[in-house]
Design brief:
Nucleotidyltransferase, domain 5, five-stranded mixed sheet, about 40% helix, about 20% strand
């Protein structure tokens, strides 16, 4: 079987997938790991990638490539999303990746990210009817509507867990004024959002998978358990009510919540609950797949981006 590696460089994380591809083009994960690099730190305000964030990201990529090479995998795909797309100095990162590792990073447009996200998330699904995929990232939130076979509509909202945390949260624990400001900012972004008559709501990315892990009080993250699990809006609201009362150091000790996500999880959870309320969904299916699976599908010629 063919082996391919895909790296997804986001605003908050660098995600590695090493997978085997069967003759029927089924993607079977061998390795899935996450590095929290916070590449987008300060990008919302300064529009630049900081030297520290670039260094963290390059160090993570170095570790990822070592894992990939140890497995004997030569083909490595790598893409960048919101933070790379928004940064005016992104060429510094792109040049460093090319010079250090001999790999060209693909900077995804919003539309390209939406397509890779959607088909990546559904790559192990066979869902009937209309589907809405929600991708809450560090810098933006994507909503993609369609069927198992095609995308009908996609939009990107300028709200993400890191972006909102940096913009609104300055005290520990969060104040009522900060909390209300975040909710108001999210609601403002949602006012122009069209109604989606979807039968299935599917969520991907770190905010949603973390909330699923917290729901299960998971000490060690298990992708197989998280993938295709279900989380209700009432459960998300209960988690939010706990998070908003805790300090950062207290949140870092909560089961299912990785310490490096503890500062941004509340903003991400608020995005999810506001989206679900706005679209009148009471539950969401969780997918542990996304852009990195879409990159492999693109490489195999199974989707055209």
């Amino acid at each position: 079987m063919q082996k391919i590696a895909a790296i997804d460089i986001g605003t908050n994380t660098a995600l590695l997938l090493v997978a085997e591809v069967t003759q029927g083009n089924e993607i079977i994960p061998i390795v899935q790991e996450e590095w929290i690099v916070r590449l987008g730190q300060g990008v919302d305000r300064k529009k630049n990638l900081s030297s520290e964030a670039i260094a963290r990201t390059l160090a993570a990529i170095q570790e990822q490539i070592e894992i990939v090479r140890d497995l004997g995998v030569e083909q490595i795909l790598i893409s960048g999303t919101s933070a790379v797309r928004d940064a005016v100095n992104r060429e510094i990162l792109l040049d460093a990746i090319k010079n250090d590792f001999g790999i060209t990073l693909q900077v995804l447009s919003g539309d390209e990210e939406a397509k890779l996200t959607y088909f990546g998330a559904l790559s192990n699904q066979n869902l009937p009817g209309d589907i809405l995929v929600v991708d809450i990232g560090g810098g933006s939130t994507e909503l993609i509507f369609g069927t198992q076979q095609k995308i009908e509509y996609a939009t990107s909202l300028n709200i993400g867990s890191v972006r909102l945390t940096e913009r609104f949260i300055g005290t520990d624990p969060i104040t009522d004024a900060e909390y209300n400001s975040i909710r108001h900012a999210i609601k403002e972004q949602l006012t122009s959002l069209k109604h989606f008559d979807a039968e299935q709501l599917v969520g991907i990315a770190g905010t949603i998978t973390t909330l699923a892990a917290m729901q299960l009080q998971m000490d060690i993250y298990d992708s197989l358990t998280i993938d295709n699990s279900l989380i209700t809006i009432s459960k998300v609201e209960k988690i939010i009510s706990v998070l908003k009362r805790k300090t950062l150091s207290q949140r870092k000790k909560m089961p299912g919540l990785k310490p490096k996500r503890a500062d941004v999880i509340l903003a991400g959870a608020l995005i999810l609950v506001e989206v679900m309320q706005h679209l009148k969904f009471t539950e969401i299916f969780v997918s542990d797949r996304g852009v990195r699976f879409g990159l492999i599908l693109q490489e195999l010629g199974m989707i055209n981006v």
